[in-house]
Amino acid sequence: MNKNNILRLAALTLSATALAGCASFSADGGFDEVGTLTRERTGQDVRFDKAGRSADADAIVQSVLAKPLTPDSAVRLALVNNRGLQSRFAELGVSEADLVQAGRLRNPGVS
Asked: Rounded CA gap, 70 and 76, in Å?
């Protein structure tokens, strides 16, 4: 191999290694962007309850139900009390992990 081929191979290897390290997880599994979009569109904060049904969620539901129901409070109740929505939030984190994994180079193996 001549010097130019060695330099090209080294540059290619370095570039591939650097780009493979670029794919990373967000701190919240992609939920921050969903929360921002939800806030912009509905005016309500949305939360991802990772531990399942929390005391905070129960307190919010009780607080909303203690007052007369308005359209805004109904939306708030739906966002907090919807288990299907919470399940989708969990799937969002899994999807992000799949995306990051797909962008990484395979581990080398010995045949």
From this structure: 10
Q: Which domain holds residue 60?
A: 24-102
Residue 4 in domain:
no
Indicate if the pLDDT at residue 75 is higher than 80.
yes
pLDDT of the residue at 5: 63
Nearest CA to 35 among 85, 108, 103, 84? 85
Asked if residues 111 and 70 have their Cβ atoms less than 8 Å apart, the reply is no
Is pTM beyond 0.85? Reply is no
In a domain, residue 3? The reply is no
Amino acid in position 38 = T
Residue 51 included in any domain: yes
